[in-house]
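Possible race condition, two jobs.
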Amino acid sequence: MLICCLLIVSSGGFVRAQNLSPDVLRVHHKAVVIDTHTDTPMNLLKDGFNLAGSHTLPSRVDIPRLREGEVDAVFFALFTPQRDRTPETYEETYKLAYQMLDSTRVMVGRNPAKVAMAASPAEIIRLSKKNRTAVCLGMENGFPLAKDITRVKEFYDRGVRYITLCHSANNDICDSSNDRKGPEHDGLSNFGKQVVAEMNRLGMIIDVSHISDKSFFDVVSLSKAPVIASHSSVRSVCDNPRNMSDAMLKALAGNGGVIQICILGSYIAPDDTSSVNYKKMKELYIKYNYGQYRNDDERREAHHAWDSIQQYFPPVLPTIAQAVDHIDYAVALMGIDHVGIGSDFDGGGGLADCADVADFPKITAELLKRGYSRQEINKIWGGNFLRVFREVERAAGKKPF
């Protein structure tokens, strides 16, 4: 998730999936479509937000649009911003993670005909065959663990199946790719090494998005199972520290892992630093300490301010074609078995011609246009991630059920 909020643009000009060719829709329908990262749980905490309702931008994920986009599984990330490490903030952030977790389960439970919670590859496939979307849980930022290793199992037992080890600042687990103060641990901390081992033991997927280059190489050298980058893109195509270098991509492929290309504008193409949007957003980043909020009231205030900027000063967004350039590059470097898609919708993700999850078939159309086979598209949309998920479970000694 980027610390900025979502872009508000009119959806009236977008061509929806129904206008695509029958061949495109047929290929998309047969794929197991998995989005490995959305920040939709933040919306569930807003008064009046109903996951079953039809929403407009800035919301990008709801049940009607998940079904329209034929999304077989979506990971709802329990995002918590990094804060000062005090007993009070540990407790507040821990409670916030549970608020999002519990709200997700309640909302999904109210709509059993169309969605259901899932915590394994087998459950995702079973639900897909029943034409229901699997809602899975991830955690973005390990801050709620509060240096308590037992909380890894606690969240696993509540259905969380990956942890993004940090966010936009260093935490107790590892260094971040974006901390303005520079590295604190020179990669993984001693506690972070325990977290990696415990996640391997449990069969929980390690997510390396947001972490520093050194932290990444530490994880790959220690993990006994493949890892994922749930929402990252390619640094050689767009030079952003949140994206992955060629060396990282090669190491990720050697680990057996997958990069889930993130369709957030700043990770797909460089920002226009002369635009009003960029300048106003930068002012807000500084005002709100780059997302390290002092309390929940400040977090809500910042999100409201960001929504307003995006409404009145929207940026020019990259396109699906530019996002697929990242897929092309990663496939050429790593091979077809190591690339997927994680939108970061409801956390900053969105393209000029891909406003929400209902537009996902248009990505399939672009992949077909570039000559990807049906089998290759199946791997990109979900097959590669499911393979990693199964391997993580096998490494922990878990049997498929």
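Job #2 (started ~2 s after job #1):
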Amino acid sequence: MSLAYLNINLDHIRERECGPIVNAENVCLGRRVQWGKHWSKKWRDNISAKERVNGTIIGYVDESGLVGVNSEREYNQVHEGQKDWCVVKWDNGKQSVYPIGAQGLYSLSFVHE
């Protein structure tokens, strides 16, 4: 197993208006999400054919550890049980992890479908 570390460069984070943010209190498996309040202009996992796609929460880390699954490319934040991280599988098939309170960032918001 090879581990990756999601390095968050705060210079690339942009704050934007969004719907209800995903956080440690309301995260749950199977919920539909999109980019949220804090999004890095470098993150492209949610783009397919130059359009942004929605995704589904497939894992997250809480006080007890990983709930659900890590992404296909296992990230240290999730593997090590660091709280307030969420794993998303985007509709284009890509998977990655995002902060949902870690480092004071909320990168996902819920989709109203």
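Residues 76-79 form the longest helix (4 residues).
Logs attached separately.
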